[in-house]
Design a protein that fits this description.
1 helix; 3-stranded antiparallel beta sheet; alpha+beta
Length: 171
């Protein structure tokens, strides 16, 4: 029997289908699944940045500050991991005498007393005191104004007076 071209084509297609159908069992494989844990730890961390306490005018013990306090402000800025931060402490400074912060002046015995407060009315002491703060609700910066006061009537020498206060953030 003579095979025509269309018959050959038909046989080729049938044979191809048989090969594909026969190999189908090799193409579909079984599958298995599992889970892979992903773990990370976020650490509590904070940074502290300060802006110096400044007073708007020089302290004048003879006229302006003979009977009036000299008030100034500074700033403590903290940035903490969300959920961190519990308190800020300001120590009494490098030149304190007992519980009185003092700035050191030009001479060996020259000191200018001051106090730091956490409120604008300057009634809540922050010098040598730890202040509780709210736990960070985001990593956004939180600013805390430091209110300073140099009491009036101090008998001090002319010159520049300095002190350094350590800011401690507990978290």
């Amino acid at each position: 029997m003579a095979t025509t071209r269309s018959t050959k084509l038909f046989l080729c297609l049938v044979m191809s289908g048989a090969v594909v159908m026969g190999s189908a069992r090799f193409l579909s494989a079984a599958t298995a699944t599992g889970t892979m844990p992903i773990n990370a730890t976020v650490s509590a961390n904070c940074t502290v940045t300060t802006t110096a306490v400044t007073f708007p005018a020089p302290y004048d013990p003879v006229v302006a500050n003979a009977g009036a306090n000299e008030d100034g402000t500074g700033n403590v800025q903290i940035v903490c991991t969300k959920g961190a931060g519990t308190s800020i402490a300001l120590n009494l400074g490098a030149n304190a005498l007992v519980n009185q912060p003092r700035m050191k002046g030009p001479g060996a015995a020259d000191f200018l007393a001051y106090m730091l407060y956490s409120d604008s009315g300057r009634t809540v002491l922050w010098s040598g005191v730890t202040r509780a703060i709210a736990v960070a609700t985001s990593k956004a910066a939180q600013n805390f104004v430091v209110y300073a006061r140099i009491p009036s009537g101090q008998d001090v020498s002319v010159g520049t007076y300095l002190d350094t206060v350590t800011v401690t953030l507990n978290y």
